[in-house]
């Protein structure tokens, strides 16, 4: 995976892959490669969302403890 990948870039690439597959503009020769990349991007996005959720919950707890 790209080292400077952000959630937004991963989501955009994933949307492009999905569009290519839905419109059948992906040749059979590269379909497995596209599906594999989509799987990697989905995993990246899920991990990013989980990490963000954890961080937000941590911040909320800290704010609640300051009251």
UniProtKB/TrEMBL annotation:
Residues 28-62 form a coiled coil. It comes from the Bacteria. Pfam families: Exonuc_VII_S (PF02609). It is an enzyme of class 3 (hydrolase). GO terms for biological process: DNA catabolic process. One of its GO terms (molecular function) is exodeoxyribonuclease VII activity. Its EC number is 3.1.11.6. InterPro entries: Exonuc_VII_S (IPR003761), Exonuc_VII_ssu_sf (IPR037004). GO terms for cellular component: exodeoxyribonuclease VII complex. Keywords: Coiled coil, Cytoplasm, Exonuclease, Hydrolase, Nuclease. NCBIfam families: xseB. Belongs to the XseB family. This is Exodeoxyribonuclease VII small subunit.
């Amino acid at each position: 995976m790209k080292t400077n990948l952000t959630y937004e870039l991963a989501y955009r690439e994933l949307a492009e892959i999905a569009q290519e597959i839905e419109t059948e503009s992906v040749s059979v020769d590269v379909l497995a490669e596209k599906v594999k990349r989509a799987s990697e991007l989905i995993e990246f996005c899920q991990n990013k969302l989980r990490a963000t959720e954890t961080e937000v919950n941590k911040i909320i707890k800290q704010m609640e403890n300051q009251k």
